[in-house]
């Protein structure tokens, strides 16, 4: 089978079905969840259409229905051998933002943020000329801003810019690495990952009415890395990937040089810090996305 039949991804180290057959149900104190594993990297669900966007092993950006049907390539990096990763939808489903450049490079690498239409048209480099490593773009719920990480001032920090790429504003200031930001549904908080306390943990930054940074609170305290936080649609929970469960005979869906960077998926209730483990299986589970299908 090929990519065009809407069922398989071929760019991965081990080509295989887009939808992995291990769906499960989890009960939280205030809701029931369905968990679905997909082979595409950095999946993001468009709440307006129910379509899923992801990266085909960093080679291209693909869109499909959640079950993998009608899978199609919509964006390729503008230069040969470039990678693209970390796509996310605008709240109205009219744009997709993604990073283009090295995936695991440190400070000093050249990575730009691009946006394009879901059919691939109107692709624009929003950070052209910044000379920095810009990554993990995420739209604000009102569509005004994109939050992202950048080393343009010499260290990985969290920034926001207008959705057209103008007026970048630095939101964090610390010698530790700050990365992987995401907006809360209310437009007033940002969750991100930081290594400022010696380990990758998740922090919550409150934004003032004008978008300037306010109170900062640490959310997780674990011996293993906590990564890729995403808010629930009602803003009451955060889902994230973590290696706090230790080695559990994980087998990566896509073989990479680090066999278990994250491990399993957890959910944290913001009101009291209650943390629930959502997955416990042989697979390396990472980069979660949380949404409601229309």
Overview of this protein structure:
- By secondary structure, the protein is mainly beta.
- The protein contains no helices and 24 strands.
- It has a four-stranded antiparallel β-sheet, with no helix packed on it. A four-stranded antiparallel β-sheet has the order 9-10-11-12, with no helix packed on it. Strands 13-14-15-16 form a four-stranded antiparallel β-sheet, with no helix packed on it.
CA-to-CA gap between the ends? 29 Å
What is the N-to-C succession of helices and strands?
A: EEEEEEEEEEEEEEEEEEEEEEEE
What structural class do the secondary elements suggest?
Answer: mainly beta
Number of helices: 0
Question: Whole-number average pLDDT?
Answer: 88
Fraction in helix: under 10%
Hey, roughly how much beta strand do the residues contain? Answer: 35-45%
Topology diagram in text:
Layout: E1 8-9, E2 16-17, E3 19-28, E4 31-38, E5 41-45, E6 52-55, E7 61-64, E8 72-75, E9 84-89, E10 96-100, E11 112-116, E12 124-125, E13 134-139, E14 145-150, E15 157-162, E16 169-170, E17 178-183, E18 189-194, E19 201-207, E20 213-218, E21 226-231, E22 237-242, E23 264-269, E24 275-277
Antiparallel strand pairs: 1-2, 3-4, 5-6, 6-7, 7-8, 9-10, 10-11, 11-12, 13-14, 14-15, 15-16, 17-18, 18-19, 19-20, 21-22, 22-23, 23-24
């Amino acid at each position: 089978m090929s990519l065009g039949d809407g069922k398989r991804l071929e760019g991965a180290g081990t080509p295989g079905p887009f939808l992995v057959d291990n769906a499960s149900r989890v009960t939280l104190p205030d809701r029931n969840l369905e968990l679905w594993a997909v082979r595409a990297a950095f999946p993001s669900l468009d709440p307006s259409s129910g379509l899923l966007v992801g990266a085909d092993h960093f080679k291209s950006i693909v869109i499909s229905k959640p079950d993998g049907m009608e899978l199609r390539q919509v964006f390729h990096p503008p230069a040969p051998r470039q990678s693209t990763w970390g796509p996310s939808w605008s709240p109205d489903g009219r744009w997709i933002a993604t990073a283009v450049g090295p995936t695991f490079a440190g400070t000093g690498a050249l990575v730009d943020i691009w946006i394009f239409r879901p059919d691939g048209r109107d692709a624009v480099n929003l950070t052209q000329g910044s000379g920095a490593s810009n990554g993990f773009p995420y739209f604000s719920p009102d569509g005004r801003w994109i939050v992202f990480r950048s080393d343009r001032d010499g260290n990985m920090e969290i920034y926001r810019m207008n959705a057209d790429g103008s007026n970048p504003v630095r939101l964090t200031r610390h010698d530790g690495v700050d990365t992987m930001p995401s907006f809360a549904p209310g437009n007033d908080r940002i969750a991100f990952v930081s290594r400022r306390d010696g380990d990758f943990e998740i922090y919550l930054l409150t934004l003032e009415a004008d978008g300037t940074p306010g109170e900062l609170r640490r959310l997780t305290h674990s011996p293993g890395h906590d990564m890729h936080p995403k808010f629930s649609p009602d803003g009451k929970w955060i889902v994230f990937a973590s290696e706090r469960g230790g080695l559990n005979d994980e087998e990566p869906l896509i073989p990479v040089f680090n066999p278990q960077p994250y491990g399993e998926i957890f959910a944290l209730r913001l009101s009291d810090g209650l943390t629930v483990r959502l997955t416990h299986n042989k697979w390396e589970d990472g980069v979660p996305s949380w949404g409601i299908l229309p």
